[in-house]
Amino acid sequence: NAGVMQNPRHLVRRRGQEARLRCSPMKGHSHVYWYRQLPEEGLKFMVYLQKENIIDESGMPKERFSAEFPKEGPSILRIQQVVRGDSAAYFCASSPSQGTYEQYFGPGTRLTVT
Amino acid sequence: AQTVTQSQPEMSVQEAETVTLSCTYDTSESDYYLFWYKQPPSRQMILVIRQEAYKQQNATENRFSVNFQKAAKSFSLKISDSQLGDAAMYFCAYLVSNFGNEKLTFGTGTRLTIIP
Fold it and tell me: Are B93 and B73 in contact (CB under 8 A)?
């Protein structure tokens, strides 16, 4: 049973470009969470999605950031017009359902904005 | 708002010895979950151990055990017989069990070094 997959593992973007980060949850998991880890810091919650629904986006910056989890295909975290402060590791986690209280993490995508 | 505090940015321990990592949290909830995650140099987040707040018994997983003091809001991790592969960042995390709100709140981490 493959774990949570994230791609790309490393992404370099110039200021003003768009970044698209993909997350495929574990088989049978329908809940996806995105977290951001700035250098030398802990992970910070961004958004919690179920298939075709955003459940909690309280950690998402109000502008430039969006997330989706379509009925088919991976979850996408999209950052428009990236700035240097967006440079971080972005982690995706999945769980099978509400109430399981365990999240399985992917290997992360390291975004570098030049 | 819930907060998680790890007051030890770095710790080191001799191989085969025991080390304890500290974590305190602040919450007004009565029902929640606590976790320790390990992040080795590969950056993969690995779940080490979890504790349900309603359980009085401390969780154990092989060489890893916790000391959960609910009244003091303390959740320390003890690693026995430390091994070189235990070297990593360790993050304490909290999750409140309200349906529709299952986000993890992480501490800032403790970097553990194992001395051969």
Answer: no
